[in-house]
Design a protein that fits this description.
- The strands form 2 sheets. This protein has a 10-stranded antiparallel sheet.
- The chain is of the alpha+beta class.
- A hairpin with a 2-residue loop joins β10 and β11 (265-272).
- The N and C termini lie far apart (56 Å).
- It has helices at 6-9, 25-34, 182-192, 202-208, 218-226, 228-232; strands at 17-22, 45-46, 82-93, 97-98, 102-117, 120-133, 136-149, 174-178, 236-245, 255-262, 265-272, 276-287.
- The protein has a single domain, classed as Thiol Ester Dehydrase, Chain A (Roll).
- It has 6 helices and 12 strands.
Length: 289
């Protein structure tokens, strides 16, 4: 028996989308402040994954659903009462993205796949983006999002592991404790134009979507992993990052970004107490001249 969500995406083939934005250095500095990463990047360079704070959408208020997400979007599947989660993806850096210059982004739908698991039906949507400056391809990425039906409807009680209160014990040579206070989450939502209420509206997050607290943005956690080499081995330039969000982190949870380098590669994780992995990533590097 096929997924009932399949009926909504049959024949859904959004066109390629081409957009342009300016890599304003102020926005990069705002993100650096949220990440506690000021002064780490080479001057004039936008580190890989930091491009997520550009190409911000700001749909009319009337175009938002009860969960704060846009009711419609170019690469958002037409399923009813849509609920979205950032699931992971990959980033490939071909050359530096330069701050202060315009960048062209070309988005193409790769796939929309219905799936069914222990948590119910979902649709996995993969979109490829290519970023060009002065006509040159600088960065390629694939973003994977999971969509469910039923946004805004109470989910009922949900079972979650005990909240981590102590930092994990790790022997990884790269480590950075992640701070996730409500102000940091609010600012991340603001600079990305993300009005999803799970990140700033605690009653909605707990009473409607069944979380124990505000949810930390998946991209914010992935960016902490992408920044580990800048913190520990500044001569290493991120060339490839494959990452997957495995478990949510809630505001105030004691979590640490850790990395174990092996030559030009590294295994990266966002860990909590008991070696629970929240985000896992594999990184490839090249040495900056």
């Amino acid at each position: 028996m096929g997924s009932s969500l399949e009926q909504y995406i049959t024949g859904w083939e959004p066109s390629t989308l081409v957009e342009t934005d300016l890599l304003d250095e102020r926005v990069s500095s705002w993100l650096a402040d949220i990440l506690d990463a000021g002064g780490l990047a080479p001057p004039g360079v936008l580190p890989p994954t930091w491009h997520w704070v550009y190409f911000t959408d700001w749909p009319p208020y009337a175009g938002l659903g009860v969960d704060g997400h846009p009711v419609s979007g170019h690469f958002q599947p037409p399923i009813p009462e849509r609920r979205r989660m950032w699931a992971g993806g990959s980033v490939t850096s071909h050359a530096d993205l330069r701050l202060g210059e315009a960048v062209e982004r070309t988005g193409t739908l790769l796939s929309a796949t219905p799936k069914s698991g222990r948590t119910g039906e979902m649709v996995l949507v993969s979109v490829r983006y290519e970023y060009r400056q002065a006509g040159d391809l600088r960065l390629t990425e694939v973003q994977n999002h999971v969509y469910r039906s039923g946004a805004g409807e109470p989910t009922g009680p949900r079972s979650w592991p005990a909240r981590p209160t102590r930092r994990p014990s790790s022997a990884a040579p790269w480590q950075h404790d992640i701070r996730t206070d409500p102000i940091r989450l609010f600012r991340m939502s603001a600079i990305t134009g993300n009005s999803h209420r799970i990140h700033y509206d605690r009653p909605y997050a707990t009473e409607v979507e069944g979380y124990p607290d505000l949810v930390v943005h998946g991209p914010l956690l992935a960016q902490q992993l992408a920044t580990l080499a800048l913190r520990n081995e500044p001569s290493l330039e991120l060339a490839q990052l494959d990452y997957r969000v495995q478990a949510p982190v809630f505001v105030g949870d004691a979590v640490t970004a850790v990395g174990t380098p092996d030559g030009a590669h590294a295994e990266l994780q966002v860990l909590s107490e008991g070696d629970r992995v929240h985000v896992a990533a594999t990184a490839g590097y090249r040495r900056r001249a």
